Amino acid sequence: MVNLGFSIGKLHFKNPVLTASGTFGYGSEFDDFIDISRLGGIVVKGTTLEPREGNPYPRMAETPSGMLNSVGLQNKGIDYFEKQIYPRVTQYNTNIIVNVSGSYIEDYIALAERMNKLEKIPGIELNISCPNVKMGGMAFGTNTDSAREVIKAVRAVYSKILIVKLSPNVTNIVEFARIAEEEGADSVSLINTLLGMAIDTRTMKPSLSTITGGLSGPAVKPVALRMVWQVAKAVKIPVIGIGGIMTSSDAIEFFLAGATAIQVGTASFIDPQISVKILEGIENYLVTKGFSDIQDMVGYINKS
Amino acid sequence: MQMAKRIEDLKVVDNKRINNDVFILELSGNNYFPELKPGQFVQARIDGSPGTFLRRPLSIHDVDYSGNKIKLLVQIAGKGTETLSGLNKGDTLNIIYPLGNSFTLPRPDDHVLIVGGGCGAAPLLFLGKYLKSNGYSPDILLGFRNSERIIGYEEYSEIGRVFLTTEDGSRGEKGFVTDHSVLAGTGYNHIYCCGPDAMMKAVAKYCLKRGITCEVSLENLMACGIGACLCCVVDTVKGNLCTCIDGPVFNITDLKW
After folding, report:
1. In terms of DSSP H, where are the helices of chain A?
2. Would you call A60 and B51 a contact, using CB atoms and an 8 Å cutoff?
3. How far is CA A8 from CA A52, A116, B115, in A?
4. How far apart are CA A42 and CA A46, in angstroms?
5. Which chain B residue has its CA at the smallest distance from A208's CA?
6. pLDDT tens digits for B143-155?
7. pLDDT tens for residues A174-200?
8. How close is the nearest chain A Cα to the Cα of B162, in Å?
9. What percent of chain A has pLDDT over 90?
10. Mutating which of A59, A71, A73 best tests the B interface, going by the most B Cβ atoms within 10 A?
């Protein structure tokens, strides 16, 4: 038997495979394909105070080994979440983390206060890195002062597990991870999507209605891995690795680089069963390599 | 109640070229197919094409429950569909299905017309057969660029009366489907339409003016096909809806056309 469990603060996860916000809906979309309770956790779709319609179509473009999206945080808002989603999503026997986003610091505070009262939501992922909304999101996560301000404000009102999702669209992501740690975050997750664009040469127009969007998929994996390695060396809080993980081997690279857990994102669009397959692959790898605890593998490349 | 979705490898039993850029894939199931409805689609994984990352949504063109086979009519639109066109008998194709909603049945006395343009007509053969098996006698109006592009005329003729238009007049009436004389009358109560956007919008306009019920099947770009990514949205009177789970079939009164 290998131990796959780990903890962030006082919150225990049965295994380190989570699903990334915005790629897994509210879980029920995947019920026909996998037993969601097998996962270490799911991070549900970015939730905002007010309902958001998101950006106009087209908001997706396929690119070499990846895709761009500019969904723009479409969601029905916190009221709808509490009434309709919360009772359903908390039926799964796994940790339900809610990704929260806002346009103003007051939005983040109000959301965090509401989330703090939801008994069965043990943690939130603070989204200060969405590249697809004009105000907020990435505007907070690419400026050290505003990042510190929003993390501090949320920490003051949120007593449970606070994960800060970092933007890769900065010169030095380590600075932002350190700020999150200094301000009391329990964990950082990285990376959110990389800002990119594509142009349709047939129509001679941008492929996305918003011109730019967030790049995800295997195309971003080497960048994500490098950032996770840098951040994991610089902070003591657990690092959750995200970015182009398509296979268990991809996931293992993140652990070896220093990630305590990983999130599977875009891969679920191509194979709705991939999160569970990755979990099984990690377990097999540990057995083959003779590890009894996955945490012994975390940051292995720095050990020798 | 939505049928449970499956992910399966189906066997290619035939791949028939219809013209330069349209082909029909015939696939055989390992298990019996669940009930499939006209308008529904599959998400096909594209193997062996490094530049293709996402699955491709493809309409179900025809279903043979007793032979355990389905057909997909595909137009080559890029590298993904071009790779699919190279599939051979015996190859497998991984699909997620059945996806999406379906066309609704007309009222019992409705006079029904099916309108298809180019290979946008992919889901309409299945619809026509379904309507016929439910006791309706739909007319079919098909529009193509020219006589060489005509797809499925013989099969549609077994369902009902078929009217044709070609843009160059090489067969049927000259012009677009909305120019056809059969639409000059006012007899239809329910029109189903699938094809290029401009054609569907013209048909929708015709129906709105006359108060005719009209359902269209949209082909928005998709990533997941199961309502998780929110990429394939269409702007409706109910807000942004996903083409993959709230559609692909929409009543035109819900669309902002």
Report:
1. 77-80, 86-89, 105-116, 138-141, 144-157, 173-182, 221-234, 248-257, 267-270, 274-289, 300-303
2. no
3. 31, 17, 58
4. 12
5. B231
6. 999 998 999 899 9
7. 999 999 999 999 999 999 999 999 999
8. 34
9. 94
10. A59
Query: Considering the domain boundaries, does residue A1 fall inside one?
Result: no
**A1-10, A108-117, B145-154: least confidently modelled range:** B145-154
Question: CB-hemisphere CA count at 13 Å for B150?
Answer: 22
Residue in B with minimal Cα distance to A25:
B228
What's the Cα-to-Cα distance from A183 to each of A11, A164, A235, rounded to whole Å?
A: 19, 11, 12
**Residue B148, number of CB atoms within 10 A of its CB:** 12
Chains A, B: CB contacts within 8 A come to: 88
Of B7, B52, B225, Cβ closest to residue A273: B7
Under an 8 A CB cutoff, do B232 and A24 touch? Answer: no
Helix (H) or strand (E) segment spanning residue B233: strand B233-236
Burial call A171-184: b when 16+ CB within 10 Å, e when fewer = eebbebbbbbbebe
Structural domain count, chain A: 1
Fold annotation for B112-217: Rossmann fold (3.40.50)
Per-residue pLDDT, A242? 98
Please state the pTM of the whole predicted model: 0.94
Q: What torsion, rounded to 10 degrees, do the Cα atoms A227, A230, A233, A234 define?
A: -100
CATH architecture of B6-99: Beta Barrel (2.40)
Q: Please answer yes or no on whether A71 and B230 come within 8 Å at the CB atom.
A: yes
CA A62 centroid distance within chain: 21
Q: Which of A62, A212, A64, A208 is nearest to A137 (CA)?
A: A212
In this complex, is the C-beta atom of A206 within 8 Å of any C-beta atom belonging to chain B?
Answer: no
Q: What 8-state DSSP symbol labels residue A82?
A: I
Q: Is the pLDDT of residue B240 over 70?
A: yes
| CATH code of the domain covering residue A103 | 3.20.20.70
| B165 DSSP β-pair partners | B143, B173
Q: Supply the residues of A annotated as catalytic.
A: 130
Angle in degrees, CA A254, A259, A260, rounded to 5? 130
Give the single-character DSSP code of A85.
Answer: I
Q: Is A76 on the interface with B (CB under 8 A)?
A: no
| Single-letter residue type at B166 | T
- Sign for the pseudo-dihedral over CA of B70, B74, B78, B82: positive
Domain range list for chain B = 6-99, 112-217
Domain residue limits at A70: 6-303
- For position A190, what pLDDT does the model report? 98
Note the pLDDT of residue A141.
Answer: 85
Contact A155, A180 (CB under 8 A): no
Contacts 24+ apart (CB under 8 A), B171-174: B171/B146, B171/B147
Residue of A nearest to B7 (CA): A33
Residues A71 and A133: their CA atoms lie apart, in Å, by 9
Per-residue pLDDT, B51 = 81
